[in-house]
Amino acid sequence: ANSSAEIFISYLNQMDIPYQFLAMKGLYNKPIILDIVSYFKLLDNYHESSAVFRVLNFDNLNLPPEVIVKLTHYSRMKSLSLFETVKIASTISGIDSATVEVLNKLVAQIERHTQLTKNKKPTELLVDFIQKSGYIETVVKEDTLQNKEILGYLQQFYNKLQDYERNTENADLSGFLDLINLEMQAGDSGRLAFDPETGPDMVKIMTVHSSKGLEFDYIFLSHLVDRKFPTDKRKELIEIPNALLKQSVAHDDFHLEEERRLFYVAMTRAKKHLYFTSADNYGGVRDKKLSRFLDELGYKKSEIKKADLRLRSGPSEKQDNNIFDINDKLIVAKGELKYETPKRFSYSQMQTYEMCPYKYRFGNILKIPTFGNHYFSFGSTIHNTLQKFLELHFNTNLNGQADLFGGNSEKPFPPFEQLDSLYQENWIDEWYQDEKQKEQYRKNGKELLKNFYQDFKQKMPKVKSLEQPFSLPLGEYRFAGRIDRIDEVDGGVEIIDYKTGKPKGDKLATHDKRQLLFYQIAAEEVLGLPVKKLKYYYLEDEKNPEREFIGDEKAKDKLKQKFLQNISDIKNQKFDPKPSQMICKFCDYKDICEHRVL
């Protein structure tokens, strides 16, 4: 059980041995989540003083304890809520002007976020809080295991918010808080996801249920005493009368067999060494008996006394070759945290890394949640619309019925109204600044599609595939991606990538060619296609939307080597910032980056 881990966690902390407690529940009990939920509660109800108290203790505020004591004392004395007291902090004796300024900024931030709850989604509020409050600035500066776990919990909470928004009509903050309260009242403390393969070597603590499907070199199976493993059979909450059962079931035997199966699962997680552990006393009056499972394996209590005495003596500096050699086997550097290099990358990740390695660190290593943006919403809308429309045309002609003379009768090209209908269906109604901006983009999008429709209908290219996925091997790594469109041309194919913006000029710069060059490599090496043309299609350029070229072997090899060098730098944790006004101005992480230049 999760509760059995506490004694081991305490000892590992004492010995400064790194560990990871891989519980399957308890997200809502993590300090960072308690902090955020408290802040959210404050936005929903200013007068929830317990939430205000937790917010006042945020590390980034750095409020002296005596100030918080003064505020709570004053609020009780004057029968005010704690928030009302914070608002009038300047009138309370003993609170200096610098602290009053901090409190005033906090009040202004809370009031601003309260206004945002009226028209912003919970995910937007969370991201704004993260980026504007300064709450996690200290966490993102230091790459430690603890900070990595904190950011992992934050990401899981963000995912929880996203799930709520996807599954709830008119999702708002108040409704989300109601959901959390209902879950906690029902005994649900929030599911925790984890990847036991990530992170540096350390002791991993988990239940047998959590270990299913995993393997480790060393396994310590603890609490092997009677009534703990196997556990006592719990009484069913709702017992089924025997008369309703088709056949009698030996419930006690069933429970024991289930426990025995779990014991087998636990043992078979070990690849090299398996250790059974038990204790005489777990806090009761009588000494505990060994687990019947150990007895069945032939272990007797008298036979393990010597080993027991050795364990009780604790780790020794002279024990150079055993599992307790904490200097060599279990301790990792407590300063910088070493991250495992992922095996899969994408073109956009390489682009981000080259733009600013520190930005890559925020997004791909620390995985800080960010706002979406209307450019992405609009671009995805257009891409999805064109894909669905061309799929419709492509499939219609493939499935054309044979005519009277045995040939296939090609069906007419779909009308523009069909394209417009798909545009409305695929419209992504997110991240626009206001209704005016949204409608302007919607109007512009329709014009872009009209121009594309006329151009496509006139040229009638032979579409070979749409949104073609690929996984390109490069060294020991793989690059995943999708190609917008592949058309058949004389002697081979051409690759098309849509752009919703305008081109920078009549000719493409070398750097601008790289995405299509990357697709050319994938098409040739993975899909086995002879690529004859690479083409960007700029939807906003009505008169001359196409820019085309073809990559030579030298350019392709140069791009491969550059990507391999990027991966090598990522592996060596080279995340030096590249601040500039142009990059920082549009960076999702500018509000929490200490290197920003604005």
Please tell me how large the radius of gyration is: 31 Å
Secondary structural class:
alpha/beta
Given this structure, which CATH class of the largest domain is correct?
Alpha Beta
Shape: globular
- Poorly predicted ranges (pLDDT <50, ≥5 residues)? 315-336, 399-408
Which key phrases capture this entry?
598 residues; alpha/beta; PCRA, domain 4; Double Stranded RNA Binding Domain; Lambda Exonuclease, Chain A; 3 domains; six-stranded mixed sheet; two-stranded parallel sheet; 23 helices; 46% helix
Question: What would your notes on this structure say?
Answer:
This protein is an alpha/beta fold. It has three domains: 27-185, PCRA, domain 4, CATH 1.10.486; 203-330, 2-Layer Sandwich (Double Stranded RNA Binding Domain), CATH 3.30.160; 374-571, Alpha-Beta Complex (Lambda Exonuclease, Chain A), CATH 3.90.320. 46% of the residues lie in helices and 11% in strands. The protein contains 23 helices and ten strands. The chain has helices at 6-14, 31-44, 49-56, 65-77, 82-87, 97-116, 122-133, 137-141, 145-167, 173-185, 208-211, 251-267, 292-296, 305-312, 326-330, 347-355, 357-365, 374-398, 416-425, 435-459, 514-525, 553-571, 581-585; strands spanning 19-21, 203-205, 216-221, 270-276, 344-345, 462-474, 477-489, 492-499, 531-538, 546-549. A hairpin with a 2-residue loop joins strand 7 (477-489) and strand 8 (492-499). The longest helix has 25 residues, at 374-398.
